[in-house]
Amino acid sequence: MFEIAEKIVRECWHILVDSSFYILLGITIAGLLKVILNPSTVLNHLGRGRYSSVIKAALLGVPLPL
Fold it and tell me: What is the DSSP string of 14-48?
């Protein structure tokens, strides 16, 4: 039973190590966007309840998981 738990923890650690670069890259890009983009500009493009803002948000959100 202990061997199975050890293998699970080891594999979780390997997944975390493999994805750590991309997690840090995403956090860095998000921080840069927070500093660079003006909140009122984002609100103008994505804050309205229109169909165009939903389409823009969907198109901007598509590459995020990639």
Answer: HHHHHHHHHHHHHHHHHHHHHHHS-HHHHHHHHSS
